[in-house]
Specification:
The chain is of the alpha+beta class. It has one domain. Helix content is 39%, strand content 11%. The chain has 3 helices and 2 strands, in the order H-H-E-H-E. A two-stranded parallel ribbon has the order 1-2. Helix 3 links the parallel strand 1 and strand 2.
């Protein structure tokens, strides 16, 4: 079907955002409560539980995990 429509699949990192310029801007928006990222996080865990985080990803239970460096 892709050959008929002339389309192709491509991957991207950061959803196409430019890390050097866009990421600081996104962080600012988050800190100013202009965007909500918290609802996208499925799990948080301390660094000591990093292996549990990998297990959750492998099993499909965690979509987006955040490691807390305390």
């Amino acid at each position: 079907f892709q050959l008929v429509t002339g389309r192709k699949w491509e991957g991207s990192a950061f959803g196409g955002a430019r890390g050097r310029t866009d990421v600081p801007k996104i962080v600012d928006w988050y800190m100013e409560n202009k965007i909500n990222i918290d609802d996208l996080i499925t799990h948080t865990m301390p660094l000591e539980d990093i292996n549990k985080g990998f297990d959750l990803m492998k099993s499909g239970e965690s979509i987006r995990g955040v490691v807390l460096y305390d």
